[in-house]
Amino acid sequence: HMLTKEAFNALLKTLEEPPEHAIFILATTEPEKLPATIISRTQRFDFRKLTLIEIIERLEKLANLEKIKISKEAIKEIALAAEGSLRDAESLFDQLISLGYKEIDIDTLEEILGHVNFEKIAEFLNYLAQKDTKNALIFINKIYENGADLINFSRLLLKISRQILLLKINNQLTELIKDDFTTEQFEKIKELAQKFEILDLQRLIDMILRLKEQIKYSPIPTLPLEMVIIQYCEQSK
C-alpha cells in the first residue's frame, strides 16, 4: 500500500499481461489503500490473528529448537503482548535470545524488555476497582523504578480494561475475548468484571486512550498515569 500512483500503474500493466513463469504475491495490512484495478485482478486471502494458545505452542517449539529454558509464565506473557501476531511474538523472543540468555523466567522478561505481566495489570486494576488511590500510586512508581515501559503498560491496561468491559456488558461476549487469555487469566478477568460498574469502566478507558501521547511528552513519565489514578479514584468516591 506504500506504492506511488505511478508504481501501481506499472504493476497493473504487468498484471494485465503477466509472464507465464511469474507469480505475484502482495501482502498488506491496509488492503483498502490498494486500487480497485489491482484488487480485481487478484485472489484475496484474509489472515486472522492467531489465538494465544497457537502462539504459545509456536514459542515452545522455538525454545526447544534453540535449547532455551523458558518458564511457562514468561511464554504466556510474550504471547499476550504479541496480540495475535506471531511475527511480534517471535521478535520479542529473538530479543531475549540475542542477549545470550539460556534460562528465562517472568522476572528476567520484565527486566530485559521492560514488560509488565498480566498479574501486575490485574493487581493495578484491583486497586482502581477498590478506589485505593494510595496503593495505586505506589504501584505505578514502583514498576517505573523497576524499569517498566509505561507506554507498553498503558497499552496492555487498555486491552484488558476493554475485555472486562465487554464481559461486563454481556456474558455472551465471552467468545470475543477468551482466545486472548489462558484459562487462569480469563478467570481473573471474570473476577475483575464483578468489581467494576460499566460507566466506571467507560470513564477509565476514555482516560487510558489519551495516555500514550501524554506519557511520551511528559517531563515526569509517571505523571499522566498518576493523574488517571487520582481522577478515577477520587471522582468515583
Describe this structure in words.
It is a single chain. This protein has 237 residues and is mostly helical. The chain has three domains: 35 residues, no CATH class; 62 residues, Helicase, Ruva Protein, domain 3 (Orthogonal Bundle); 118 residues, Zinc Finger, Delta Prime, domain 3. The longest helix has 20 residues.
> What percent of the residues sit in helical stretches (DSSP H or I)?
55-70%
Instruction: Tell me the number of structural domains.
Output: 3
Instruction: Give a short account of the largest sheet.
Output: 2 strands, parallel
Q: Low-confidence runs (pLDDT<50, min 5 residues)? A: none
User: End-to-end span in angstroms?
Assistant: 49 Å
Average pLDDT works out at 87
Task: Give the helices and strands, then pairings.
Blueprint: H1 5-16, H2 36-39, H3 52-65, E1 69-70, H4 72-82, H5 86-98, E2 103-104, H6 106-113, H7 118-129, H8 133-145, H9 150-169, H10 174-177, H11 183-193, H12 198-209, H13 211-217, H14 223-235
Parallel strand pairs: 1-2
Helix pairs in contact: 3-4, 4-5, 7-9, 7-11, 8-14, 9-11, 9-12, 9-13
